[in-house]
Design a protein that fits this description.
The complex is a heterodimer of chains A (about 425) and B (about 170). With about 425 residues, chain A is mostly helical. Chain A is about 70% helix and about 0% strand. Chain A has one domain (about 5-410). In chain A, strands 1-2 form a two-stranded antiparallel sheet. Chain B is mostly helical and about 170 residues long. Classes of the chains: A mainly alpha (about 425), B mainly alpha (about 170).
Chain lengths: ~425, ~170
């Protein structure tokens, strides 16, 4: 068989199939672990009847969803009602395309090492932000098409929340991009002329040479992670669902497999989001040189690097579940205050401090890391102080009322 | 025909169909969604021109942020389907016809002078190396003044909105 054909078509297809199936299996694993870990955290058992340790529970759930009647209520806007779950699932799936899930593998007969990444496009991180910003449409359109006031309220909340937290998501990574550097020998190995800070592969590789970004950009890491929780609609940011107020929020009118697709999309968003955080802040496939066992570029090293990435993502997914049972849901005005008055300033500060200290200390990452944390503390203290003054001068209900930037919502609710 | 040309025609057709759908649908939600489709197809065209950064920004800003706000407002105001009454009437119709004719003349002129479709290839050849890094460099050196002026305009709009909203809430109280 022609080498070029294998390189250009067969290997990418194998990579795509591998990752897509891994994502779907990951969703099943997440359904199981969410229920079991939740049970463990609440000192109960969780589902443990289907298969050993309840491991076959997701399959039982899936079969149940498939065999339920696929109901479309009469009062819905049919085309959009059917389209909405797909509009949520597709962005969740295609984001993973630019995330590097390991270093690279050399296979006999092919001259170049094969990068363990589906596509290394030159706007990598912008692609992720662009696709992430589209995820909201599934929620909003599904909510509107359901023609149900609970759904609509969920959709409205979700769109306002997404717009607010997207800004933080984008700003928090700029510091990371500024400090992405690679020595020349790694660049030539990748076959690139210069460092492209937007490429997730370069960002991850840069953390193999320098300390992990979480150490240098700790406040930005916190801001990014929080914004990502908001983008995935997970507790404490699941106002779009809010069972106690909105029945089930945007998917109230959905049942059977359509509801299951909404659920799968949420879990896929979590998995992809964790993978992105691992790549940007937690060192990607690096773990103190462990990824080079068996020689760089060998199959063993490639598999180990993938395993490192996999385990890191898994640990981060555990944090998702952990947070769910630790923090209660925000109130709407708290959500907006937190996003605009705390997270956004912290993310902006990290840009200013990183840039300034980069010039002053001539690229000393230790000082940049310390400076970032100190500056974030100062900013949070200032904002909190302003809040305290604000609340003293007004009655507390008035303050709450004024603080909501989208005041139209008060009228609706 | 190269793959780029085929993609160009696909994206072009989708963006035209989307644009026509925006003004053809009677329901604002459907119009807004068609507009998103158009923005997407245009982002695809930018990618074909080698302007990856512009394509990403197109999706992030227009499809991702501005259209979400549009949908938000449409849903919040619960705008219903347009009735026949709200269609264009009288004087406005004349203006639209004149503008339409002008646009058609423009289109014909461009189509006649544009030649044989080599514009795409030459544009690709000249912009192949435009990276985000170079755009940033240009923005902060050659185009620094326009860039800063734009930010001032945005700031002014922002302050304007805050002033308007604050005044409203004071009169309410």
């Amino acid at each position: 068989m022609d080498i070029e054909l294998v390189k250009d078509i067969i290997i990418p297809i194998v990579k795509i199939l591998f990752i897509v199936h891994l994502l779907i299996i990951g969703v099943m694993a997440m359904i199981w672990s969410e229920r079991r870990v939740s049970g463990w955290m609440q000192d109960r058992l969780g589902p443990n009847r289907v298969g050993p340790q309840g491991l076959l529970q997701p399959i039982a759930d899936g079969i149940k969803f498939l065999f339920k009647e696929d109901l479309i209520p009469n009062h819905v806007d049919k085309p959009l009602y059917v389209l909405a779950p797909a509009m949520l699932l597709v962005p969740a799936m295609i984001t993973i395309a630019v995330v590097p899930f390991g270093s690279s593998i050399s296979i006999a007969g092919i001259d170049e090492p094969i990068p363990l990444q589906i596509a290394d496009i030159n706007i990598g991180i912008l692609y992720i932000l662009a696709i992430a910003s589209l995820g909201v449409y599934g929620v909003v359109i599904g909510a509107w098409a359901s023609n149900n006031k609970y759904s609509l309220l969920g959709g409205l909340r979700s769109s306002a929340q997404m717009i607010s937290y997207e800004l933080t998501l984008g700003l928090a990574i700029i510091g990371v991009l500024m400090l992405t550097e690679l020595p020349n020998e790694i660049l030539t190995k990748f076959g690139d002329d210069e460092v492209n800070p937007l490429s997730l592969r370069h960002i991850a590789a840069s953390q193999g040479v320098h300390p992990w970004n979480i150490l240098i950009h700790f406040p930005a890491f916190l801001a990014f992670t929080t914004a990502m929780f908001a983008e995935t609609n997970r507790l404490p940011f699941d106002l779009a669902e809010a069972e106690q107020e909105l029945v089930a929020g945007y998917h109230t009118e959905y049942s059977s497999m359509k509801f299951a697709i909404f659920f799968m999309a949420e879990y896929m968003n979590m998995i992809v989001g964790s993978a992105v955080v691992v790549t940007l802040f937690l060192g990607g496939w690096h773990f103190f040189g462990l990824e080079n066992i068996g020689g760089e570029g060998s199959i063993l090293a490639g598999l180990i690097s993938f395993a490192i990435f996999f385990i890191k993502t898994g640990i981060f997914l555990f944090v998702f579940i952990w947070v769910r049972w630790t923090l209660p849901r925000f109130r709407y005005d708290q959500l907006m205050n937190f996003g605009w008055k705390f997270l956004l300033p912290v993310a902006l500060t990290s840009i200013v401090v990183t840039g300034t200290l980069w010039i002053i200390t001539d690229g000393n990452r230790l000082w940049i890391g310390i400076g970032n944390v100190v500056a974030a503390f100062i900013v949070v203290a200032i904002v909190a102080g302003m809040f305290a003054l604000d609340n003293n001068s007004k009655s507390s209900t008035q303050a709450t009322h004024d603080a909501a930037p989208l005041r139209g919502l008060d009228a609706v609710e | 025909m190269t793959a780029e040309m085929i993609l160009f025609f696909i994206f072009g057709a989708v963006s035209l169909i989307g644009a026509i759908a925006v003004i053809s649908f009677r329901h604002p939600i459907y119009s807004a969604l068609s507009l998103i489709v158009t923005f997407f197809a245009q982002a695809g065209l930018f990618v074909l021109l080698g302007a990856h950064f512009v394509a990403a920004v197109q999706v992030i800003v227009y499809a991702g942020a501005i259209m979400v706000l549009f949908l938000f407002v449409i849903m919040l105001l619960n705008l219903g389907t347009l009735s026949a009454k709200s269609a264009l009437t009288g004087k406005l119709k004349g203006v639209v016809v004149v503008l339409g004719v002008l646009l058609a003349i423009q289109g014909v002129y461009i189509a006649m002078t544009a030649g044989t479709g080599t514009a795409l290839e030459s544009a690709q050849a000249s912009t192949e190396t435009v990276t985000t890094y170079k755009i940033g460099e240009l923005l902060f050196s050659k185009y620094l003044l326009p860039f800063e002026v734009t930010s001032l305009i945005l700031l002014a709009a922002l302050i304007g909105v805050i002033v308007l909203v604050k005044r409203e809430s004071q009169t309410e109280n």
